[in-house]
C-alpha cells in the first residue's frame, strides 16, 4: 500500500478537473482502495483528486519567488539595450529619421495588404477554376448577378481568416489578452459542464422510479382507508376492506369551494406586512432568501375568525359531516398544485433545482420536487404550505371533532380524552408557529424540493391523518380516569421538553456558535466550518428531537384506549418516518462531514433510542 503524502485537514493546492488551474483546498479524507483524496474547495465543493493533481502550497510559493527574482534582471537588460547611452546625438537623430521612414513604409504595407485582401475576397478562384459566390456555382451567378451584394462579396471564409491572421496588425499584447480571455471562457465552460453533471441526483430514495410511482397512489389510498375505517362501528383491521361509498358522494363543489376559501385566506394572512423578515441559510449559489415570520399572527387571526363564526352560530361540525369530501378536495388540489410546480420547474435555472429532486426521471422528480424554493414574486409556496393551511387546519379540524362529539352524544362538556388530544396537539402546533424561524434550518426547506411528496403531506396528510385520534373519538368514545389522564399528561410534557430543548440547542448553535450562552456546549469541528455538538441533548443521542416526537405521538394516542390499533397508526407511522429520516440524515451527514461524522458517531453511538437504537 503506497504511503499518502497529505494528511487530513492539510491545506494544499488542488487542480480543478479539466483545467490547469490550481485552487486552495483542504484534504478531508483518503480512500486506501482507490488511492484518491477527497478535498473541499472554499465554495464548499467536494471532489476526489489523484495525488498527482495535488501540490503543496510551499511549491507554489517557491515558483512565485523564482519568477519574481528573475524579472528585474530581464528588465534591466532590456532597459540597457533600449537606452544605448554611448551613441552620439547625430546617431540618435539618424535613428529618429529612420523611424519616420519605417512608419511610412508600414502605412504603405497596410494599404497594399488591404487592397490585396479586397481583391482576394472579390476574385477568389476555386479549385475547379469556377468563381463561386455565397456557395453557388458560376453558372448560377451569371444568371442572377444583380442580386449579389457587396456584403455577400465581403463575407469572410476560412481562407480569408488565414490571410487576416497572417497579416494581423493588432499589437501582440492585444492578441495575448484575447487568447487569455478565450482560455478563461473555455475553463469556465468546462467548470459549468462539470457542475451541471455533478448536480444531478444520483442516489434515488423511496424505491426510485417504481417506488415513487406507487407512492403517488398509495398515500391517498392510505388516507381514505383510515378515514373509512374510523367511520365503522368496529374499526378492526380484520374488517378489511371497509365498505366503499359511492363515487358521486365523495365530491361536492361546495366543499371544494370552502377548501379554496380556507387556502387563500391563509395566503392573505401570509402576505400581511406584520412580523419580522429574516434570512434563510445560504443556498448553493451563496444567495440567501428572505422570509416573513408571521405564522403565529396568522394563527391568532384564524382563531378570531373561527370565534366570530361560532358567535354567529355557524355549525363547525360541518367539517365532520363532510370529512371525506374535504379530504378528496384537498387531495385533488394538492395534485393540481404538484403538476403546476413541476411544469414551472422545467424553466427554473440549474442552481435553483433541488439537490434531491434533479434525477432527470419525470416520476421521481415530480414526487420529490424538482425546484427547491418555488416562488411567485416574494410568495414562497413551499414555506407557506409547510406551516399554514395544513398545520393550522389540523387545529380547526380537532375543534370541529370536539364540537361534533358534544352534539352527537348530547354532552354539555367534551370528554376528558378529547380534551387531552386537543390540548396536546394544540401545544404542538402553537410551538411550531411560535418557533417558526427554526423551520428554515430543516431539510424540508434546505434540501427537499417542493413536489407531490410535500404538497400532499402538507395539505392532506398533516390535517387529515394527524387528526385521526380526534376523529376516532367522535365515533368511539373512551372514558379515562383523572390519574390516567395525569400520567399521560406527564408523558407528553417529557416528550415536549426533549423535543423543544433539543431543537432550541441545535438552532441557536447553527445561528451563532460563538454565543456566550452556548459556551458550555462542546463540539467537533468539521471541514465545512460547522460544528457537531457532542454535549447536551445531541451528546445523548444523535437525533433527540425525533425521540421527543415519538414520545409525544404515544401520548396523543393513549387517550383513545386499547380497544383498537387504529388510533396508534400515527405512532407506527411516525416511528417508520423518523427511522427513514434518520437513515437519510446519517447518509447526508456522512457525505457532508466525512471523518468528523465518524468521530461523532463514535462519541454518540445511539441514534434515537438510548441503549436500544
Automatic annotation (TrEMBL):
EC number in record: 1.3.1.70
Catalytic reactions of this protein: 4,4-dimethyl-5alpha-cholesta-8,24-dien-3beta-ol + NADP(+) = 4,4-dimethyl-5alpha-cholesta-8,14,24-trien-3beta-ol + NADPH + H(+); 4,4-dimethyl-8,14-cholestadien-3beta-ol + NADPH + H(+) = 4,4-dimethyl-5alpha-cholest-8-en-3beta-ol + NADP(+); 5alpha-cholest-8,14-dien-3beta-ol + NADPH + H(+) = 5alpha-cholest-8-en-3beta-ol + NADP(+)
GO BP annotations, alphabetical order: cholesterol biosynthetic process
Composition bias, Basic and acidic residues: 99-109, 129-147
MF terms (GO), sorted A to Z: Delta14-sterol reductase activity; DNA binding
Topological type in the membrane: Multi-pass membrane protein
EC supergroup of this enzyme: oxidoreductase
InterPro entries: ERG24_DHCR-like, Lamin-B_rcpt_of_tudor, Sterol_reductase_CS, Tudor
Top-level taxon of the source organism: Eukaryota
One GO location term (cellular component): nuclear inner membrane
Domain Tudor: 4-62
Composition-biased stretches (Low complexity): 66-75
Entry keywords, A to Z: Cholesterol biosynthesis, Cholesterol metabolism, Cytoplasm, DNA-binding, Endoplasmic reticulum, Lipid biosynthesis, Lipid metabolism, Membrane, Nucleus, Oxidoreductase, Phosphoprotein, Receptor, Steroid biosynthesis, Steroid metabolism, Sterol biosynthesis, Sterol metabolism, Transmembrane, Transmembrane helix
Cited SUPFAM superfamilies: Tudor/PWWP/MBT
Protein name in UniProt: Delta(14)-sterol reductase LBR
Organism lineage string: Eukaryota, Metazoa, Chordata, Craniata, Vertebrata
Amino acid at each position: 500500500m503506497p504511503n499518502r503524502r497529505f494528511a487530513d485537514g492539510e491545506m494544499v493546492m488542488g487542480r480543478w478537473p479539466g483545467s490547469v488551474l490550481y485552487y486552495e483546498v483542504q484534504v478531508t479524507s483518503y480512500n486506501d482502495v482507490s488511492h484518491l483524496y477527497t478535498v473541499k474547495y472554499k465554495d464548499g465543493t467536494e471532489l476526489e483528486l489523484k495525488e498527482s493533481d495535488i501540490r503543496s502550497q510551499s511549491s507554489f510559493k517557491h515558483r512565485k519567488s523564482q519568477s519574481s527574482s528573475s524579472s528585474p534582471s530581464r528588465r534591466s537588460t532590456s532597459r540597457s539595450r533600449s537606452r544605448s547611452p554611448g551613441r552620439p546625438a547625430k546617431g540618435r537623430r539618424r535613428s529618429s529619421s529612420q523611424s519616420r521612414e519605417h512608419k511610412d513604409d508600414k502605412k504603405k504595407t497596410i494599404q497594399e495588404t488591404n487592397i490585396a485582401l479586397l481583391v482576394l475576397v472579390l476574385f477568389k478562384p476555386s479549385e475547379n477554376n469556377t468563381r463561386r459566390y455565397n456557395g453557388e456555382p458560376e453558372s448560377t451567378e451569371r444568371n442572377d448577378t444583380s442580386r449579389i451584394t457587396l456584403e455577400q462579396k465581403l463575407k469572410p471564409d476560412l481562407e480569408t481568416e488565414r490571410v487576416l491572421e497572417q497579416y494581423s496588425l493588432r499589437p501582440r499584447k492585444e492578441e495575448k489578452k484575447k487568447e487569455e480571455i478565450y482560455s478563461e471562457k473555455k475553463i469556465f465552460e468546462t467548470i459549468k459542464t462539470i457542475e451541471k453533471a455533478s448536480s444531478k441526483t444520483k442516489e434515488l430514495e423511496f424505491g426510485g422510479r417504481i417506488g415513487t410511482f406507487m407512492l403517488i397512489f398509495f398515500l391517498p389510498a392510505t388516507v381514505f382507508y383510515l378515514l373509512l375505517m374510523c367511520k365503522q362501528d368496529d374499526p378492526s383491521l380484520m374488517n378489511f376492506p371497509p365498505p366503499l361509498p359511492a363515487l358521486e358522494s365523495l365530491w361536492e363543489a361546495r366543499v371544494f369551494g370552502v377548501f379554496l376559501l380556507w387556502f387563500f385566506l391563509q395566503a392573505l394572512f401570509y402576505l400581511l406586512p406584520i412580523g419580522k423578515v429574516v434570512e434563510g441559510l445560504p443556498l448553493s449559489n451563496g444567495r440567501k432568501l428572505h422570509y416573513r415570520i408571521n405564522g403565529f399572527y396568522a394563527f391568532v387571526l384564524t382563531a378570531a375568525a373561527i370565534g366570530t363564526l361560532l358567535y354567529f352560530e355557524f355549525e363547525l361540525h360541518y367539517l365532520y359531516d363532510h370529512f371525506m369530501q374535504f379530504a378528496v378536495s384537498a387531495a385533488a388540489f394538492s395534485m393540481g398544485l404538484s403538476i403546476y410546480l413541476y411544469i414551472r420547474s422545467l424553466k427554473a435555472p440549474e442552481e435553483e433545482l433541488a439537490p434531491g429532486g434533479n434525477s432527470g426521471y419525470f416520476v421521481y422528480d415530480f414526487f420529490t420536487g424538482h425546484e427547491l424554493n418555488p416562488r411567485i414574486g416574494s410568495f414562497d409556496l413551499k414555506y407557506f404550505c409547510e406551516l399554514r393551511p395544513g398545520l393550522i387546519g389540523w387545529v380547526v379540524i380537532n375543534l370541529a371533532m370536539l364540537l361534533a362529539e358534544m352534539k352527537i352524544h348530547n354532552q354539555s362538556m367534551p370528554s376528558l380524552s378529547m380534551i387531552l388530544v386537543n390540548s396536546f396537539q394544540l401545544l404542538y402546533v402553537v410551538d411550531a408557529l411560535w418557533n417558526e424561524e427554526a423551520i428554515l434550518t430543516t431539510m424540508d426547506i434546505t434540501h427537499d424540493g417542493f413536489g407531490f411528496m410535500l404538497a400532499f403531506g402538507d395539505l392532506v396528510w398533516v390535517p387529515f391523518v394527524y387528526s385521526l385520534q380526534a376523529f376516532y373519538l367522535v365515533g368511539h368514545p373512551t372514558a379515562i380516569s383523572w390519574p390516567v389522564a395525569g400520567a399521560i399528561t406527564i408523558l407528553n410534557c417529557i416528550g415536549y421538553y426533549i423535543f423543544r430543548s433539543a431543537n432550541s440547542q441545535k438552532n441557536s448553535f447553527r445561528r451563532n456558535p460563538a454565543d456566550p450562552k452556548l459556551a458550555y456546549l462542546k463540539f467537533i469541528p468539521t471541514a465545512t466550518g460547522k460544528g457537531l455538538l457532542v454535549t447536551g441533548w445531541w451528546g445523548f443521542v444523535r437525533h433527540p428531537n425525533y425521540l421527543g416526537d415519538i414520545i409525544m405521538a404515544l401520548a396523543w394516542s393513549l387517550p383513545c384506549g386499547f380497544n383498537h390499533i387504529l388510533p396508534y397508526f400515527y405512532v407506527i407511522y411516525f416511528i417508520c418516518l423518523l427511522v427513514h429520516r434518520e437513515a437519510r440524515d446519517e447518509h447526508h451527514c456522512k457525505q457532508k462531514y466525512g471523518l468528523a461524522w465518524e468521530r461523532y458517531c463514535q462519541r454518540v453511538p445511539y441514534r434515537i433510542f438510548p441503549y436500544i437504537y
